[in-house]
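wait is this the right file?? whatever heres the structure
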Protein backbone atom coordinates (compact mmCIF):
# COMPACT_ATOMS: atom_id res chain seq x y z
CA UNK A 1 0.00 0.00 0.00
CA UNK A 2 2.82 2.40 0.84
CA UNK A 3 4.45 1.88 -2.58
CA UNK A 4 1.12 2.45 -4.32
CA UNK A 5 0.55 5.65 -2.41
CA UNK A 6 4.06 6.96 -3.14
CA UNK A 7 3.59 6.32 -6.87
CA UNK A 8 0.38 8.35 -6.71
CA UNK A 9 2.20 11.16 -4.90
CA UNK A 10 4.88 11.28 -7.60
CA UNK A 11 2.26 11.94 -10.28
CA UNK A 12 0.79 15.00 -8.56
CA UNK A 13 2.10 18.28 -7.21
CA UNK A 14 -0.18 18.09 -4.18
CA UNK A 15 -2.36 15.36 -2.70
CA UNK A 16 -4.92 16.03 0.00
CA UNK A 17 -5.94 13.73 2.80
CA UNK A 18 -9.23 12.75 1.15
CA UNK A 19 -7.30 11.33 -1.79
CA UNK A 20 -5.16 9.28 0.59
CA UNK A 21 -8.24 8.02 2.39
CA UNK A 22 -9.73 7.02 -0.95
CA UNK A 23 -6.63 4.99 -1.82
CA UNK A 24 -6.31 3.30 1.60
CA UNK A 25 -10.04 2.89 2.15
CA UNK A 26 -9.66 3.88 5.78
CA UNK A 27 -9.31 7.22 7.54
CA UNK A 28 -7.49 5.62 10.46
CA UNK A 29 -5.03 3.78 8.23
CA UNK A 30 -4.49 6.94 6.18
CA UNK A 31 -3.47 8.78 9.35
CA UNK A 32 -0.98 6.08 10.30
CA UNK A 33 0.48 5.88 6.81
CA UNK A 34 0.80 9.65 6.43
CA UNK A 35 2.50 9.89 9.82
CA UNK A 36 5.02 7.20 8.89
CA UNK A 37 5.76 8.71 5.49
CA UNK A 38 6.28 12.17 7.00
CA UNK A 39 8.48 10.82 9.76
CA UNK A 40 10.66 8.96 7.27
CA UNK A 41 10.96 12.06 5.05
CA UNK A 42 9.29 10.42 2.07
CA UNK A 43 6.52 13.03 1.92
CA UNK A 44 6.27 16.61 3.13
CA UNK A 45 3.32 18.38 4.71
CA UNK A 46 2.56 21.69 2.98
CA UNK A 47 -0.25 22.61 5.33
CA UNK A 48 -2.93 20.72 7.20
CA UNK A 49 -4.27 17.84 5.06
CA UNK A 50 -2.10 18.67 2.03
CA UNK A 51 1.08 16.76 1.19
CA UNK A 52 3.69 16.36 -1.54
CA UNK A 53 6.84 14.46 -2.41
CA UNK A 54 8.21 17.45 -4.31
CA UNK A 55 10.31 19.66 -2.09
CA UNK A 56 10.03 22.60 -4.49
CA UNK A 57 7.69 25.44 -3.59
CA UNK A 58 7.23 26.58 -7.20
CA UNK A 59 5.99 23.12 -8.22
CA UNK A 60 3.31 22.96 -5.53
CA UNK A 61 2.25 26.60 -5.13
CA UNK A 62 -0.46 26.69 -7.82
CA UNK A 63 -2.00 23.44 -6.59
CA UNK A 64 -2.48 24.26 -2.91
CA UNK A 65 -5.70 26.21 -3.50
CA UNK A 66 -7.88 25.74 -6.52
CA UNK A 67 -8.32 27.57 -8.79
CA UNK A 68 -5.08 29.54 -8.68
CA UNK A 69 -2.00 30.51 -10.64
CA UNK A 70 1.49 31.83 -9.88
CA UNK A 71 2.13 35.45 -10.78
CA UNK A 72 4.09 38.64 -10.03
CA UNK A 73 7.82 38.17 -9.23
CA UNK A 74 7.89 34.39 -9.66
CA UNK A 75 6.16 34.63 -13.04
CA UNK A 76 8.31 37.58 -14.10
CA UNK A 77 11.41 35.54 -13.25
CA UNK A 78 10.07 32.40 -14.97
CA UNK A 79 9.60 34.39 -18.20
CA UNK A 80 13.06 35.97 -17.84
CA UNK A 81 11.60 39.45 -17.54
CA UNK A 82 13.73 40.13 -14.46
CA UNK A 83 17.02 38.90 -13.07
CA UNK A 84 15.81 39.21 -9.50
CA UNK A 85 15.51 35.92 -7.62
CA UNK A 86 12.19 35.97 -5.75
CA UNK A 87 12.12 35.05 -2.07
CA UNK A 88 8.33 34.87 -2.15
CA UNK A 89 5.91 33.06 -4.44
CA UNK A 90 2.74 35.02 -5.14
CA UNK A 91 -0.36 32.99 -5.95
CA UNK A 92 -3.54 34.57 -7.32
CA UNK A 93 -6.71 32.72 -6.37
CA UNK A 94 -10.48 33.20 -6.30
CA UNK A 95 -10.83 30.86 -3.33
CA UNK A 96 -10.85 32.37 0.14
CA UNK A 97 -8.34 30.77 2.48
CA UNK A 98 -8.01 30.69 6.25
CA UNK A 99 -4.29 31.44 5.94
CA UNK A 100 -3.06 33.84 3.26
CA UNK A 101 0.58 32.92 3.93
CA UNK A 102 2.51 29.75 4.46
CA UNK A 103 6.12 28.63 4.30
CA UNK A 104 7.26 25.58 2.39
CA UNK A 105 10.74 24.42 1.35
CA UNK A 106 12.25 27.64 2.62
CA UNK A 107 9.97 29.87 0.55
CA UNK A 108 7.07 32.03 1.65
CA UNK A 109 3.92 31.51 -0.40
CA UNK A 110 1.44 34.39 -0.33
CA UNK A 111 -2.08 34.05 -1.68
CA UNK A 112 -3.84 37.05 -3.21
CA UNK A 113 -7.62 36.72 -3.14
CA UNK A 114 -9.19 38.26 -6.23
CA UNK A 115 -12.51 38.37 -8.02
CA UNK A 116 -13.20 36.18 -11.08
CA UNK A 117 -13.05 39.37 -13.17
CA UNK A 118 -9.26 39.45 -12.80
CA UNK A 119 -8.71 35.71 -13.03
CA UNK A 120 -7.35 35.29 -16.55
CA UNK A 121 -4.11 35.43 -18.52
CA UNK A 122 -2.39 32.31 -17.20
CA UNK A 123 -1.12 29.14 -18.84
CA UNK A 124 -0.26 25.58 -17.96
CA UNK A 125 3.45 24.79 -18.12
CA UNK A 126 5.49 21.67 -17.45
CA UNK A 127 8.05 21.91 -14.66
CA UNK A 128 9.96 18.71 -14.00
CA UNK A 129 7.03 16.67 -15.28
CA UNK A 130 4.49 18.50 -13.11
CA UNK A 131 1.77 20.76 -14.53
CA UNK A 132 1.98 24.25 -13.04
CA UNK A 133 -0.33 27.19 -13.69
CA UNK A 134 1.48 30.49 -14.16
CA UNK A 135 0.66 33.94 -15.51
CA UNK A 136 1.81 34.60 -19.05
CA UNK A 137 4.41 37.40 -19.49
CA UNK A 138 1.88 40.16 -20.09
CA UNK A 139 -0.41 39.17 -17.20
CA UNK A 140 2.64 38.97 -14.93
CA UNK A 141 3.18 42.68 -15.58
CA UNK A 142 -0.51 43.56 -15.24
CA UNK A 143 -0.89 41.65 -11.95
CA UNK A 144 2.22 43.33 -10.59
CA UNK A 145 0.59 46.72 -11.16
CA UNK A 146 -3.01 45.71 -10.43
CA UNK A 147 -2.19 44.25 -7.02
CA UNK A 148 0.53 46.86 -6.38
CA UNK A 149 3.20 44.32 -5.48
CA UNK A 150 5.92 45.74 -7.75
CA UNK A 151 6.83 49.42 -7.81
CA UNK A 152 6.05 51.41 -10.93
CA UNK A 153 9.76 52.23 -11.25
CA UNK A 154 10.56 48.51 -11.41
CA UNK A 155 7.73 47.92 -13.88
CA UNK A 156 9.22 50.63 -16.09
CA UNK A 157 12.63 48.92 -15.98
CA UNK A 158 11.02 45.58 -16.88
CA UNK A 159 9.16 47.12 -19.83
CA UNK A 160 12.23 49.00 -21.00
CA UNK A 161 14.39 45.86 -20.95
CA UNK A 162 11.81 43.58 -22.55
CA UNK A 163 9.79 45.75 -24.91
CA UNK A 164 10.80 43.66 -27.92
CA UNK A 165 9.53 40.41 -26.38
CA UNK A 166 6.43 41.62 -24.53
CA UNK A 167 3.31 41.51 -26.70
CA UNK A 168 2.16 45.10 -26.28
CA UNK A 169 -1.23 44.47 -27.85
CA UNK A 170 -1.97 41.74 -25.35
CA UNK A 171 -0.63 43.89 -22.51
CA UNK A 172 -3.04 46.69 -23.40
CA UNK A 173 -5.95 44.29 -23.89
CA UNK A 174 -5.35 42.82 -20.45
CA UNK A 175 -5.16 46.26 -18.88
CA UNK A 176 -8.43 47.33 -20.50
CA UNK A 177 -10.06 44.05 -19.49
CA UNK A 178 -9.39 44.77 -15.81
CA UNK A 179 -11.22 48.08 -16.10
CA UNK A 180 -8.82 49.61 -13.58
CA UNK A 181 -8.49 53.14 -14.94
CA UNK A 182 -5.67 54.24 -12.63
CA UNK A 183 -3.58 51.29 -13.75
CA UNK A 184 -4.43 51.92 -17.41
CA UNK A 185 -3.28 55.53 -17.06
CA UNK A 186 -0.01 54.44 -15.44
CA UNK A 187 0.65 51.82 -18.11
CA UNK A 188 -0.12 54.24 -20.92
CA UNK A 189 2.23 56.79 -19.39
CA UNK A 190 5.05 54.23 -19.02
CA UNK A 191 4.70 53.07 -22.61
CA UNK A 192 4.64 56.69 -23.76
CA UNK A 193 7.96 57.18 -21.98
CA UNK A 194 9.27 54.35 -24.13
CA UNK A 195 8.06 56.05 -27.33
CA UNK A 196 5.00 53.83 -27.61
CA UNK A 197 2.03 56.17 -27.82
CA UNK A 198 -1.32 54.45 -27.24
CA UNK A 199 -3.23 57.51 -26.08
CA UNK A 200 -5.90 57.29 -28.79
CA UNK A 201 -6.65 53.71 -27.79
CA UNK A 202 -6.73 54.45 -24.05
CA UNK A 203 -7.95 58.04 -23.83
CA UNK A 204 -11.48 57.11 -22.74
CA UNK A 205 -9.96 55.66 -19.55
CA UNK A 206 -7.99 58.83 -18.77
CA UNK A 207 -10.24 60.53 -16.22
CA UNK A 208 -9.58 64.16 -15.14
CA UNK A 209 -8.49 63.50 -11.54
CA UNK A 210 -4.73 63.30 -11.07
CA UNK A 211 -3.18 59.89 -10.41
CA UNK A 212 0.21 59.51 -8.69
CA UNK A 213 2.59 57.52 -10.86
CA UNK A 214 4.12 55.61 -7.95
CA UNK A 215 1.29 54.32 -5.79
CA UNK A 216 3.39 54.02 -2.65
CA UNK A 217 4.49 57.69 -2.60
CA UNK A 218 2.67 60.94 -1.96
CA UNK A 219 1.16 62.70 -4.97
CA UNK A 220 3.77 65.46 -5.21
CA UNK A 221 5.47 66.19 -8.51
CA UNK A 222 5.04 67.52 -12.02
CA UNK A 223 1.69 66.88 -13.68
CA UNK A 224 1.62 65.12 -17.05
CA UNK A 225 -1.52 66.69 -18.51
CA UNK A 226 -1.85 64.12 -21.29
CA UNK A 227 -2.24 61.12 -18.98
CA UNK A 228 -3.29 63.07 -15.87
CA UNK A 229 -0.37 61.49 -14.02
CA UNK A 230 1.57 63.15 -11.22
CA UNK A 231 5.22 62.25 -11.76
CA UNK A 232 6.06 61.66 -8.10
CA UNK A 233 9.07 59.52 -9.01
CA UNK A 234 11.82 60.03 -11.55
CA UNK A 235 12.13 57.25 -14.14
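ok assuming it is, sequence goes like this
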Amino acid sequence: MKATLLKEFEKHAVIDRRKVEGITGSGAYASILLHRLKKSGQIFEIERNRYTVHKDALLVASRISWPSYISIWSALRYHNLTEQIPQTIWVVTTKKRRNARLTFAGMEIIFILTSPKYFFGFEKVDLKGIEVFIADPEKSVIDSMLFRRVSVSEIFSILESNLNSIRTGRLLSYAVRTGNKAMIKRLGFLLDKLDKDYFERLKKYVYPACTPLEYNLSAKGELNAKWRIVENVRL
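The mean pLDDT is 95. so i think its the right one actually
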